[in-house]
Amino acid sequence: MNSTARKIIAVAGAGAGLISGLSAVPGSASAEVGAVDWWSGDSYYYRTVSDANPKIGDVITVTTQFQRRWSFEDIYNYKDIQDGCLTYVPGSAKWQNSTSSPAKNVTVDDAVAGSLGSVRFDSSGTTAWRVPGLGSGLGEKRTISVAYTVGADCPTGVNLATGTVHYGGSLGDGIWQGKGPAIKVQTPPQKVATTTSVSVTPAPKVGDPSTVTAKISSDSTVTDGTVEFFNHSTSIGTADVVNGKASVSWTPANEGAYSLKAVYSGTATLAGSSSSIGGTVTPKDPDPEPGAPIITLSNAPKLDQATTITIESDAAVGSAVALTANGTNLCSNLKLGSDHKVTCSWTPNASGAVALKAVIGSQSTTKNVTVAPKVTPTDPTTTDPTTTDPTTTNPGSGGNGSLDTGSLGGLFK
């Protein structure tokens, strides 16, 4: 038995007349075709792979070409054997690259990467797949081809487990081992690093929606990919990246500690990354009594930043309002104005959970909030939801147009 092996370079479309069954990788301008041939008696075999150096995700076609001298041979069944990291493309097993005589009884034997799996199938009839002979010269070529997708589990930069072919025919069995051709998957280019930061605003409270935002930074422009968000180990949603950011809405169901994590998927050129933040979910506000005052805030409270608290009630104009934060009085001499509202400027000097309570006569309302710590922006050119510029402090004002904000020690000032 004589055996030779060789490699050739074929440009897509240029080598179609040279190698029967040759196909280029879709989207490629060229492909490095691997080929091996051998004789056995009066049979000549020429076996090719459309791209011997593919990339992860490429589709490659492995073709075995048959030729005979003297007598013909009918092929009854065929087994193509390849590394288990290559996934058979359903419907790709073909005789003469045609659907006119389809393969039957296709059976796929899967294997892990580095081990050999196989695709076995039968001819469409006992004489349907015939390799003609031609006296002392070689008869016409006949081909069997199988396509595979290069899996992400394929090792790169080294040869895959060597494939081969087995078949059964009218002249007996052809059992070949380790024929190839060799396939070496390209080592992908190193991806550009990214960093992910995550923020949440307003501060999480039971029953109230907050927006969780991830910001992805890189030396390259970040325009795509996805971010999946988690609270502890539970996914709270996935969002596409737009202009370097992605966000989801999250409504906590329970109070207590939270741990939010954002995981950026990366892309073909950008590496993935992730980051986490933690804190405490504030309890749900108690249901207000009928006619009780309503408390609203101009913005989510942050350390050393002024927030305007507004109390609204249908009580009589001029009614006295007592406002406390964790039991400490805020803003003295508060009275309802002609619009049945009064405001108080509050600048907390410590972060953490705060219960704001407004009392008018015999009725009261409590609103639970969380004071966020001061965060120094990592990118001074971009305003992050948790690091906005401090709001200008407004003096306390009410229905009479003037209030003494007072001076409070401890947690507030």
From TrEMBL:
Keyword presence, Glycosyltransferase: no
UniProt-listed Pfam families: Big_3_5
UniProt cross-references to InterPro entries, sorted A to Z: Big_3_5 (IPR032109), Ig-like_fold (IPR013783)
Biased composition (Low complexity): 376-393
Residues spanning the signal sequence: 1-31
Keywords: Signal
GO biological-process terms attached to the record: carbohydrate metabolic process
Name of the protein in question: Bacterial Ig-like domain-containing protein
